[in-house]
Each structure stands twice: as structure tokens, then as C-alpha cells.
TrEMBL record:
Gene3D superfamilies: Enolase-like, N-terminal domain. Keywords: Magnesium. InterPro entries: Enolase, Enolase-like_N, Enolase_N. It comes from Perkinsus marinus (strain ATCC 50983 / TXsc). Residues 1-109 form the Enolase N-terminal domain. This is Enolase, putative. It comes from the Eukaryota. One of its GO terms (cellular component) is phosphopyruvate hydratase complex.
Amino acid sequence: MFRAAVPSGASTGIYEALELRDGDKARDVGKGVLKAIKNVNDIIAPAFIGKDVTDQAGIDKLMVEELDGTQNQWGWCKAKLGANAILSVSMAACRAGSAAQNIPVYKHIADISRKRTDQFTMPVPAFFPLSTVDPTQVTALLVKSS
């Protein structure tokens, strides 16, 4: 079994893929993902039976274009299954594909993207360490602690 965790941010711009949330305010302040989990179990998982886990492009195309199929004026928006469901399965499939070939994930991704695998450099990490719904809270915290 391969697992993946996907990010969830406060940003919901018009160009972003759509994250599927339950909306039930009584559970996880409306940010639960039971609908996305149900889509993985009931729609995505059955479609993967017998598929080649090393075919990342085929896996992603199956989920985005065939199983979900939703588009807006900017492209595939993933509104039916949810970007959170699709991305988590894509990442888990990538890990499974690397394991099937007995190579590390970074080499598998390099192979998929047709990059040279003889020279690697460590990327500089980039992340936002304080994630809140309201960015002004972060500013207030940083100013207060200075």
C-alpha cells in the first residue's frame, strides 16, 4: 500500500484546481474530505484495477480527463472528484511505480520527465511555515514577536 498527503491552502483562486470539501460545519468546520475519500474508494480505485502503475501519464489522464472530466475556461478543474482526491492518488501511484521498478521516487520522476538521472542537486526547500486562513494574523504575529 502506498500513501500520499496533499496540501490544503487558504487560496482559492480562479486558476486553481478545485478542492472537494464536505461543507458540514458540524464536522471539521466544514473542511472535511469524506466526499473526496468516497470518490477515491468508489470511483478511482475500481478504475485502477489492472492498470500499469508505471504509466504515470496514463494514470493522471484517466483520473483528470475520463473519470472527472470537468473543465472551466482555463482547463481541467477537477470539480467532480476533487483535486485533493486526484492528487493524492497520483502521488501514491507515483510511489507505487517507483517501487515496481525498484528505484527511488526521485529517479522515477526524473525518468517520467525525461531528465538526466546522472546529476542531481538538492533543491532549496520553499514553504510557508505559518499557515492560517487569514494572512494578516501571520503579519500580526511576526510584528508582535519582533
